[in-house]
């Protein structure tokens, strides 16, 4: 696992193959990072499906309303919802969507990011300046690469648990 420099701004996502560690970019997207941390700390992301996984592009997850595979899961609805928290204003930056970057999903409205996010399999610079970058994978990208593909996948993978590293350390 990568050395965690700022546990309060590091997210640990446990997948079937192991942990994915994400450095959250508070200086780039402070409102998005705060919302992600609030949802993670509330256990909202636990058991949420990767509902849209496109080979050579990205893996999308985070629909806490319809994507929880342990609570009323409906694969057809996964990807259509968000959380009970308000939508966020866009926090666009000059950081490119390279492999391993984490961005906020949204509707056509740039100010509609809520809980869904995606992790890039490969560079996708056509997204630059169009979506909010809020994190980067610093270890465990091999586990992201192993996520089952599909739109939606017939048998989707899930985030088993999502924790802020500072909380995991406190309970260890």
Share of helical residues:
10-25%
Strand content: 25-35%
Question: How far is the N terminus from the C terminus?
Answer: 16 Å
Rg calc: 14 Å
Oligomer: single chain
- What is the molecular shape? globular
Summarize the structure.
This protein is an alpha+beta fold. The protein is built from three helices and ten strands, in the order ββαββββββαββα.
Description:
With 172 residues, the protein is an alpha+beta fold. The chain has helices at 30-41, 141-145, 165-171; strands spanning 10-15, 18-24, 48-49, 52-54, 58-61, 101-104, 117-120, 133-139, 158-159, 161-164. The chain has an eight-stranded antiparallel beta sheet. A two-stranded antiparallel sheet has the order 3-9. It is globular and about 35 Å long. The two termini are 16 Å apart. The mean pLDDT is 95.
Descriptive key words:
172 residues, alpha+beta, eight-stranded antiparallel beta sheet, two-stranded antiparallel sheet, 3 helices, 10 strands, 14% helix
Helices and strands, with pairings:
Blueprint: E1 10-15, E2 18-24, H1 30-41, E3 48-49, E4 52-54, E5 58-61, E6 101-104, E7 117-120, E8 133-139, H2 141-145, E9 158-159, E10 161-164, H3 165-171
């Amino acid at each position: 696992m990568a050395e965690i420099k700022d546990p309060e701004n590091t997210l640990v996502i446990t997948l079937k193959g192991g942990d994915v560690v994400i450095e959250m970019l508070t200086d780039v997207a402070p409102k998005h990072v705060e919302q992600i941390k609030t949802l993670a700390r509330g256990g909202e992301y636990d058991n949420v499906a990767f509902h849209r996984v496109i080979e050579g592009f990205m893996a999308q997850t985070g629909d806490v309303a319809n994507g929880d595979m342990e609570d009323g899961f409906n694969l057809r609805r996964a990807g259509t919802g968000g959380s009970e928290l308000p939508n966020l204003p866009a926090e666009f930056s000059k950081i490119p969507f390279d492999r391993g970057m984490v961005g906020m999903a949204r509707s056509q409205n740039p100010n509609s990011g809520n809980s869904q996010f995606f992790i890039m399999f490969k560079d996708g610079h056509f997204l630059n300046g169009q979506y909010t970058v809020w994190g980067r994978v610093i270890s465990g990208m091999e586990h992201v690469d192993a996520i089952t593909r599909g739109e939606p996948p017939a048998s989707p993978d899930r985030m088993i648990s999502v924790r802020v590293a500072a909380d995991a350390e406190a309970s260890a």
